[in-house]
Amino acid sequence: MRKNILIIFSLFLFGVVTSLQAQQTVTPAQQQKIREILKEAYPDSLPGSSMMLIQNSQVIMTETHGMANMEERIPIRPEHVFAIGSTSKQFTAVGILVLVQQGKVDLKEDITKYIPDYNTHGRHITVENLITHTSGIRSFTEMQGFSEMITTDKSMEEIRKSFEDSTLLFEPGSMWSYSNSGFFLAAYIIEKVSGQSYANFIREHLFKPAGMDHTCFGSNTDIIMNRAQGYDAGGEHGLERTRPYSWSWPIGAGNIMSTTADMAAWNNALLSGKIIRPELLKQAYTPFRLTNGQDTHYGYGWQINKVGNFRVIAHGGAIGGYLADAIYLPEKNIYLVSLTNTTAVSSIDQMRKCVLVLLDQPTGDPAVVNTKTNLKEYEGVYEVNLLGGRLVTNSGNDKIYRNVFVEDNRLYIQRSGRSKTELLSSGSDDFFIKDSPQRFHFNRDKKKKVVSMDVYNYPMAFGPVDVNRKTDLPLPVAGQEIKVPAGILRKYLGVYELAPGFTLEFSLDGDRFYAQATGQDKFEVFAKSETSFFLKVVDAKIDFKMDAAGTVTGLTLTQGRKMEAKKIR
Predict the structure, then answer these.
(1) What is the DSSP letter of 342?
(2) For residue 559, which of 544, 538, 543, 545 has the smallest C-alpha distance?
(3) Cα 292 from Cα 295, distance rounded (Å)
(4) Which 3 state secondary structure label does DSSP give 353?
(5) How far apart are CA 490 and CA 447, in angstroms?
(6) Same domain, 322 and 381
(7) Total structural domains in the chain?
(8) N or C: which end of the chain has fewer CB within 10 A?
(9) Secondary structure element (H or E) that encloses residue 391, with its range
(10) What is d(CA 471, CA 486) in angstroms, rounded to the nearest whole number?
């Protein structure tokens, strides 16, 4: 399968308390389907997953697939410990609620009550804004230079200063943008109010009463028994050991490591009222609404969606070498947790299917519906607001677009920096992409003219629906290549570093020029001029840079946004 060149760095995401017992148990047929989904995704010879399914506080299924350590050929066992990434956010949110329960924190108070010298840029930012991603504070993980900073240990004061003076993205409460900075500040408040370190507070008030005996905080130096080795895409064989990063950065946002059994114990403790009162948990499981009334599908450290009459209360996590998903279905009293030691396989894709199996919903694509609509109505350039749950403006000033166009009487969509994909109709103004959870709905004005496009994932939307406004910009014209002498192309051969551990290598095969990103396939590159090139498989442009002597020193890759790379060999 071809892989597009994607340059993405992030930490990475995922009920109402019910006293009702599930009306039916998970059937053997459902268990078998879940087993097949996991087995197909995680071969025994590669890094894999540990999964546990709980219903009515009882273990229904425990599944392990793949290797905990490739070099030592150690298979994954239920007791293996994995980093859970942003699934840690629910622990920070509940830590804040413990302080609310103790009368020491007010969710509606301005954060300057607890951090008096914090720069709020003259805005009213509440504690609640921090744990609902509605503060407007930029997520430091997407800010320029973070890929270099994360390799260096920093104090909490230094991390705070790295983003504090950046302008806010929006008026607090008016919009939603996933912010690791917000949860870092929530951890900072826990320390200031409790007088304890974040780690000690969470251990005492959350881990200990929940009986989470094998849960800890990530470290490059501590001995963590049964730690599964993390792997990322890359290297000569398509996988490589996760490169070291500093665990000082994800505090409060993604620094916890755990087992499936401990995560199940955590969910049971929450539902039993051992940690916080039921009314506080209900509040945490309630979606926050923006000032314009829009549903964010996000509570306090949990994502909340509905499939039919069933709520899906979940959060996933992604951090170097690991992915995690923890999902609670309150109407069925089911808890599903999956921990993996590879970022090369999308765990959320498997968990979406498992959730649909448990809710007796089809796991495949919707049926294709021929609505006999004039496809040209949808053509246009639509401006993207959210990317990976973050506002596009969090990462810089470059705008991102989705181009919708007709070719051979078929409708296609192409996001900036990506390849084109066919849109298939599932109903009036509704479309989907084959084998993808992404859904698209076109909105019309009173004159029935298409004016915008809703973009979301099914069955678990990540944040509010992203409304892409149709612009007046013309659809781009496909690039036309020119022939460049091989002698000029040879000047560009070599390796260019986009980020630590992530490079682009250029090579020649006869008169054909190729680029290959770390861990990805090789793609042909075409010339627009002697210094400017483009790819046809994705919307990407490469401009080589030279010094006064004519020596090639680096390049600029434009793939949705601009990224600089220096030539290293």
Answers:
(1) B
(2) 538
(3) 9
(4) helix
(5) 56
(6) no
(7) 3
(8) N
(9) strand 390-391
(10) 41
Crossing angle of the two packed helices 28-41 and 347-358, in degrees rounded to 10 = 170
Are 383 and 302 part of one and the same domain?
no
Q: Is residue 180 part of a domain?
A: no
Contact 368, 342 (CB under 8 A): no
63 belongs to a structural domain: yes
The 3-state DSSP class for residue 438 equals strand
Domain range for 510: 486-567
**Residue 39 within a domain:** yes
No. of helices (H) and no. of strands (E), the chain:
12, 31
Cα–Cα dist 480/287, whole Å: 48
Long-range contacts of range 516-522, CB-CB < 8 Å, 24 or more positions apart? 517/5, 517/7, 518/234, 519/232, 519/233, 519/234, 519/235, 519/238, 519/239, 519/240, 520/3, 520/5, 520/233, 521/2, 521/3
- For the segment 234-279, what is each residue's pLDDT rounded down to a tens digit? 777 789 999 899 999 999 999 999 999 999 999 999 999 999 999 9
**How many residues belong to the chain?**
569
State the pLDDT confidence band at 479, using cuts at 50, 70 and 90: low
Confidence (pLDDT) at 3: 36
Q: Given 421, 439, 470, which residue is the final one in a domain? A: 470
With b for 16 or more beta-carbon neighbours within 10 A and e for fewer, the 75-109 pattern comes to ebeeebbbbbbbbbbbbbbbbbbbbbbeeebebee
How far apart are the C-alpha atoms of 114 and 21, rounded to whole Å?
A: 41
Query: Following DSSP, what letter does each residue of 257-325 receive, concatenated?
Result: EE-HHHHHHHHHHHHHTSSS-HHHHHHHTSPPB-TT--B-SB-SS-EEEEETTEEEEEEEEEETTEEEE
Report helix, strand or coil for 499: strand
Rg (CA), the chain: 24
| Residue 231 φ/ψ region, left for φ over 0, alpha for ψ in the -120 to 50 degree band, beta for the rest | beta
Instruction: State the pLDDT at residue 20.
Output: 38
Pairing type for strands 540-546 and 552-559 reads antiparallel
Q: Could you tell me if 460 and 472 are in contact, meaning their C-beta atoms sit under 8 angstroms apart? A: no
Q: What is the mean pLDDT of residues 494-502?
A: 83
Question: What are 258's strand-pairing partners?
Answer: 82
**What percentage of the chain has pLDDT greater than the value 90?**
80
Under DSSP, the state recorded for 207 is I
The share of the chain scoring above pLDDT 70, in percent, equals 95
Least Cα distance to 168 among 179, 153, 158 occurs for 179
Question: CATH number, domain at 349?
Answer: 3.40.710.10
- Burial zone of 228 (CB within 10 Å; 0-12 exposed, 13-18 middle, 19+ buried): buried
- Token pair of 147, please? 């890929």
Assess contact for 231 and 242: CB atoms under 8 A. Answer: yes
pTM reported for the whole predicted model: 0.86
Q: How far apart are the first and last CA of the chain?
A: 29
CATH of the domain at 504: 2.40.128.50
What is the separation of C-alpha 123 from the centre of its chain, rounded to a whole number of angstroms?
Answer: 28
The answer to whether residue 14 is domain-embedded is: no
Alpha helices (H) along 63-117: 89-101
One domain for residues 554 and 432: no
